[in-house]
Protein: histidine kinase
Organism: Asanoa ishikariensis
Amino acid sequence: MNNRLLHLVLRTESDVFVARQRAREVAAAVGLEHQDQVRLATALSEIGRSLFTTRGGPPATGAEVWFAVNSGKLEVEVVAVGPSQAAQLPSLGRLVDSLTIDDGPTTTVVRMSRRIPGGVDLTPDDLDRIRAALAASAPRTPLDEMAEQNEQLLAALEETRAHRDDLARLNAELEETNRGVMALYSQLSDELEETNRGVVALYAELDERSAQLRAASEAKTRFLANVSHELRAPVTAVIGLARLLDDPESDPLTDDQTQQVSLIRGSADDLLRLVNDLLDLAKAESGTIEPDWSEVDLRVLFSQLRGTVRAMATGAVELVVTDPEQPATIRSDEVLIAQVLRNLLHNGLKFTAAGEVRMTATRDGDGWLIRVADTGIGISAELHDRIFEEFYQVPGRSPSGMKGTGLGLPYARRLVTLLGGTLTVASEPGAGSTFTVRLPAAGHDGAS
């Protein structure tokens, strides 16, 4: 194994406890998350314990453990002399990404690995830094203290043989210390074994709950899609009938009837908009939306949005769309980006009574930042996350009087995520809002 970080030797069962600590330290040093650190340490601890429990033969004479980084993975190899019970631990494969056990008559070899977040190899400088840190943080255990006392006792013996009485007293104290250390280790070993069983059971339960959550989410998405689809036809029919009743060529209506038909048509339009939003959200959640990746000119897109959205601006609100500097191309889906930006511009105009709604785009490293800022009523900090929840609407009425469904922002965030980007908000009450869309310039379709 290349790029080795640490080497351990397991001679006694007490070394297994040290190996668990060191495994957690190595995993943390290469960047594994806390849960993955616990998983790897638990797997190594159980394997180490099994090496000292042979199938009816003499105890294993020892084992060696190597930690190394290869191809974006933290790899652990355990080599022990003699057979073991490691092959009887197949459930440990759930704690690591890969696990192989070669339990032969004379040698047992166990290999396992976990992916490093990001999947990239660490540089030689990074590996040197990690080795130095691990070497400087060698763990101290009760057994280390006992070894140090033994060395001090031998030094005292060589300095003077005349103090045999003192030596006998020190030997008695050392024996008592040894018994205390072994009792402490036995307690720690029992607690560790119980913890390992609990960790394995906990992750099994988490996997089951995750499967249930996915099933519930899929059922909700199917329900929204089916209900929305069934509602479109009758709602469209109501809008058509209201349009016929209000047609100048039809029989004239009284003023009251005209007002009632107008209310019916307005309510049906609101309901159709809600149904369409539900369908869009259901498609986004089900993963059926596939981006049509192509080269998108942001200047052309901004020009189109400037023309289509300007009609919504009132006399007191100015819509300002500033073209980005050339070159302004991005590999993405033009239709989906337009949906997101149109939604954000509509939102800004809806909640702005006076001032302006401004959209800009700037290059940011390997991506683009598109900002839609308004001078509207603003949003308090505790509601910044809630506005991206389905059906949630900020309390109070918009200055323009336009109604929303509470689905536009959740749908916009899902589309941005689908395109490989992020959608965030910065806002304060009375100070307006700024929505920022960050998109990668190269897209996420695998094209260079």
About this structure: The radius of gyration is 34 Å. The chain has four domains: 4-138, 144-212, 222-286, 294-440. The first helix runs from residue 14 to 29.
